[in-house]
Amino acid sequence: MPGAFSIIENTWITLTDGRKLSARMWMPDGEGPFPAILEYLPYRKRDGTAPRDETTHPVFAAEGYACVRVDIAGTGDSEGAFDDEYSEQELSDGEAVLAWIAAQSWCDGKIGMIGISWGGFNGLQLAFRRPKALKAVVSVASTVDRYADDIHYMGGCLLSDNANWGSQMFAYQSRPADPEHRPDWREDWIKRIEEMPFMAADWLRQQTRGDFWKHGSVCEDWSAIQAPVLAITGWADAYVNAPPALAANLSVPAKAMIGPWEHRYAHIAKLDPADFHGEVLAWFGKWLKEEDTGAGDLPDYRVYMQEHFNPTMQNKPRQGCWVAEAAWPSPNVQERVMHLGADVLADAAASGTLAVSSPATAGQASGYFCPGMRFDNELAGDQAGDDALSACFDTAPLAAPLELLGRPRVRVAFSVDKPVAQLVARLCDVSPEGVSQRITFRPLNLTCRDGFEAPRKLVPGQRYEAEIELNECAHHLRAGHVLRLALSTSYWPVVWPAPEAAEVTLHLEDCALVLPERRVSEEIDPQAPGAPRDYPVLQAEQLRKPGGTSRTWTREDGALVLDTFDDYGKAVDPYHGMCAGSHVSMHYEVHPDDPATAAFASDWNFEFGRGGWQVAIDTENKVTCDRENFYLWRRVTAFEGAGKEVVLTKEWQEVIPRGVL
């Protein structure tokens, strides 16, 4: 039976250099000592993640775990300066936090780490460093390769979310500590703003897979991780490649699970929520409490095998079923090669050439890069419009169902007319009615044809070969449907366009699609997660309801514009009375005939208050480009008091050469 617990609103963890990190704890009643669960984030435990924390840590504490939620240095109420994501400071501080927890009288010395996205990343990264007390990890929506599979670059191409995420972190960094915990909040607030790094620019300067990105990429040495890992994500999420990679490569117990979810813990997902708590409790029960929970006997890879569901950009239920592979890689998955011909995918190789050249606006149905971050209107929609702007290769209507599980690959022989060019591959399931559902995608910067550490510009007219390994997928195509490979030279707004419009000529005799075809004579029990169990919800007083809008329109000069607005609402926390609200507007634009007109802008607004304490922050960001450079600009304005008196205004700007982007 679940037990009682108490909440400790704030505890200070003092580091060896005197900095103090702020922690909130959920402590089980009883004698103890208890195993502990750590979640370590820069997103403010006091208000930022408080609604989500209310749905997780109380459930775990009631099951006998001491739960500790820590703000990273320089964020939330923690002291010190924030320097960058997954920095050496963050990870060495994390090791100190683990050691501190293990040394407390209420802890039995066994700790598990949990987290989604940032917390999923640093859970793996800390396991890589082998701290003694870290015995197990639940990593959700994470990566094993920070260059290949994060929010900055994909396939050597710049993602527009490098600018978007940079603008979000700029806004997040500008928020003050809570005066209830930090009497020096105002001095610290001003210092935080004055000294905050320009991360969007810092990341943009690191355009190849060098030491900057190798730091924190656990794929550099799989054997370093010795704590068992449960890796979870959802097909609507951006982070789909890590779970099967961990299951395939770790030498310690590692299990992968991919459901239909967006970028959220599964129990609070908008897309077919599931019992996330049960998965976590079984995993930590096995490795922290040494209980027979069955977690060690799970199939290596449990996946929601999706089917065609008439995609829209709005949240709606998925269609499919759960399947599992006892071992991963699986003998049930074999490569099937199909060849690219004149608009067809066929078993026999073709000959001749075919030109691929797309307007810079191709990609309007791509959706938001990481669904789950916006209010709605963020999923990939019907791809038919983007297919019309691409070179498409179709099978005949399938005589029998086709099941895919893994990462398809596209081999291309090509020549180009520009020194820098992109090729974006999408695999789609096309219904008999012509609705095209994206199964998976991935871009490749063709200057990275030989690797991502030392790209080389292309010589126009010269013949090259390259391979695009698409993102992980699990998809069941019904008989009568068509499998489509769509190739384009742009995919805006997900991928930042090349500096100028390019034409890629495919030499078809050496172009092929390699499919991971799954054939199973008898399915095993997928041990699928059940429906969400009951969990607590933060009983905040809502002063402004959340909501969002998206609008795509064409300006008089022909540029295509996407404007979005997301209001995250305004509410009063029932535990400490802080009122917090935020909203963001984003703007994307590009002219179809000139990729160098691509631009991004955003404006984030935060407001906080309690009694006579009232502050607000407005952050503005712009990224534009031409064929040679990127131009980054940002400004923050901080306000104080009911009359919103300006405390500080500061601007930054950077010019960064494009290199091969």
TrEMBL record:
This is Glutaryl 7-ACA acylase. One of its GO terms (molecular function) is dipeptidyl-peptidase activity. Residues 281-536 form the Xaa-Pro dipeptidyl-peptidase C-terminal domain. The keyword Hydrolase applies. It holds the Pfam family PepX_C. It comes from Leisingera methylohalidivorans DSM 14336. The keyword Hydrolase applies. PANTHER family: COCE_NOND FAMILY, PUTATIVE (AFU_ORTHOLOGUE AFUA_7G00600)-RELATED, PEPTIDASE S9 PROLYL OLIGOPEPTIDASE. Keywords: Hydrolase.
